[in-house]
Design goal:
It is a single chain. The chain is of the alpha/beta class. Helix content is 39%, strand content 14%. It is built from eight helices and nine strands. The chain has helices at residues 16-27, 50-59, 74-88, 111-139, 160-180, 199-203, 216-226, 240-246; strands spanning 7-11, 31-36, 64-68, 93-96, 142-146, 185-191, 195-196, 212-213, 237-239. It has a seven-stranded parallel β-sheet, sandwiched between helices. Strands 7-8 form a two-stranded parallel sheet. Helix 3 runs parallel beside helix 4 (111-139) and helix 4 runs parallel beside helix 5. It is globular, with a radius of gyration of 18 Å.
Length: 279
C-alpha cells in the first residue's frame, strides 16, 4: 500500500491510460479524483465514463470523486480542484493525462486544431498545476506528472502543433521542480518507449497490437514516481522503460499486447502520420 491515504487527481481518467493509473493508485491505497469529460457513454468508439471508473475504485475499497471536467476551461479546472479539496481535504498528486492528438504538418494544421492541442495539452496542464500548487505548498508535499516526452528537438521534428504542446508540458514540469522544490514538491514528465494501447491509438489507426504495449506500463511507471517522497527523486523527464529498469524491472513481456511479440521502440514521431481527414 505505497500510496495509503494519499489523494491522486487524474485527468482523462475515464478510460485507457488514465483509468489504468487510477486503478493501480487505488490498489496501492489512494483515493482518486476521476476527472474527465465523459459522464455518459454515448460514443461506441469511446467507452467508459467517470462513474464506471469510480465504481471500480470503490470496489477496491477506496474513495472516488467522479468529476465531469473539460480541461480547456480554466475556471472549471479551479472548481474541480476546489471540489477535490472539499471532499478529501488534500491533493497529494496531480496526473495530467488528458490529451488531444492531431498529427499533421504545419500547412495541414488548421488553427482550430492548433488551438485544440495547445489548450488540452499544455494550457490545461498549466492551469491545473497552478490550481493545485497552493494546496501542495501548504501541506509541504506534492507530485505532478505530465504525460509528455523529454525535450529533444532532434526526435521531435514534424507534427509541429502537437510537438509544441507536448514539449510545453515538459517545460512546465521542469519549471515547477525548480520553483517549488523547497516545499517538497516535484514534477516529472513521463513518456512511453513504445506505442501504447489506447483508444487514441485504436481510433486514429496508429499501428496494431503487435507494436503496442499495454497501458499498464505507464501506470506502473506513474506509481513508481508517486511512491517516493517528492524530495527523494527530483523531477525529470522519463521514458517509462528506463524508469522501470531503475526500479528493478527486467522482464517487460507482461506488457506485450501480443504475447511473445516485443513492440519496437519509437521516436516521438515514430508512428505513421494521422490523416487530417480523421476526427
Amino acid at each position: 500500500m505505497r500510496l495509503r491515504d494519499r489523494v491522486v487527481f487524474i485527468t482523462g481518467a475515464s478510460r485507457g491510460i488514465g483509468r489504468a493509473v487510477a486503478l493501480i493508485c487505488a490498489r496501492e491505497g489512494a483515493d482518486i479524483v476521476v476527472a474527465a469529460k465523459t459522464e455518459v457513454a454515448d460514443n461506441p468508439r469511446l467507452p467508459g465514463t467517470i462513474h464506471d471508473v469510480a465504481g471500480e475504485i470503490a470496489a477496491l475499497g477506496r474513495r472516488a470523486l467522479p468529476l465531469k471536467l473539460d480541461v480547456r476551461d480554466d475556471e472549471a479546472c479551479r472548481s474541480a480542484v476546489a471540489a477535490a479539496i472539499e471532499r478529501f481535504g488534500r491533493i497529494d498528486a496531480l496526473v495530467n493525462n488528458a490529451g488531444a492528438l492531431f498529427w499533421a504538418d504545419v500547412l495541414d494544421t488548421p488553427m482550430k486544431r492548433f488551438d485544440l492541442v495547445m489548450s488540452v495539452n499544455v494550457r490545461a496542464s498549466f492551469a491545473l498545476s497552478q490550481a493545485v500548487l497552493p494546496h501542495m505548498i501548504a501541506q509541504k508535499y506534492g507530485h505532478i506528472v505530465m504525460m509528455s516526452p523529454p525535450v529533444d528537438v532532434s526526435v521531435c521534428a514534424h507534427h509541429g502543433a502537437y510537438a509544441v504542446s507536448k514539449l510545453g508540458m515538459t517545460m512546465v514540469a521542469h519549471a515547477i521542480t525548480e520553483e517549488y522544490a523547497e516545499h517538497n514538491i516535484t514534477a516529472h514528465a513521463l513518456w512511453p518507449a513504445t506505442a501504447v494501447e489506447s483508444y487514441a491509438t485504436k481510433n486514429f489507426g496508429l499501428g496494431g497490437p503487435e507494436i503496442w504495449r499495454k497501458a499498464d506500463i505507464l501506470a506502473d511507471a506513474t506509481l513508481a514516481l508517486l511512491a517516493r517522497e517528492p524530495s527523494a527523486r527530483p523531477g525529470k523527464a522519463w521514458i517509462d522503460e528506463d524508469l522501470l529498469r531503475e526500479e528493478g524491472v527486467t522482464d517487460f513481456s507482461r506488457y506485450q499486447c501480443v504475447p511473445g511479440v516485443e513492440p519496437p521502440h519509437i521516436a516521438f514521431t515514430g508512428l505513421p502520420k494521422v490523416s487530417t481527414a480523421k476526427p
